[in-house]
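Sequence of Rod shape-determining protein MreD (Blautia obeum A2-162).
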Amino acid sequence: MRSKFVLLLTTVVCFLIQSTVLHLISIGSITPNLLLILCVSMGLMRGRKVGLWTGFFSGILIDLFYGSVFGFYALIYMYVGFFSGYAFRIYYDDDIKVPIMLTVIMDIFYNLAVYGLQFLLRGRLGLGTYFTRIIVPEVFYTVFLTVIVYRIFRYINYHFMSATRKESESIWVLK
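Predicted 3D structure, token representation.
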């Protein structure tokens, strides 16, 4: 129960920081995606199920306050957390390379999904412009923030949350 409360509190705090403080340090209206970093980190450190639920609540918060279609961001963040959880067993916590690599992959996936469902369906076909002006700067900015913030999430995971169970021990294993 304590782990769920800490995770919910961390998600709300990250949402508040992303929607207030990070907009103040945006470069060319590009802000890093702190909730994506949280979903990737929790998926890596705690598994697919926790990554999925972290993504769901992160996406619901964005949908409630900023989304045009309810559930759109919840679905994207759920996929991000779930797919990041596949590296749960093969990943070593102290190494920062795996979270950085997954953050790059998931940020590109996130932005391509936003492009496909928000712009492409409306007839805007400028993928090259969107890629060079939005996706690439956001990926670099998010990776820079990942280097700083990942250690904080790791500290929260090991000091404030209960020990994780192996996914093979869970009755809710998705195979």
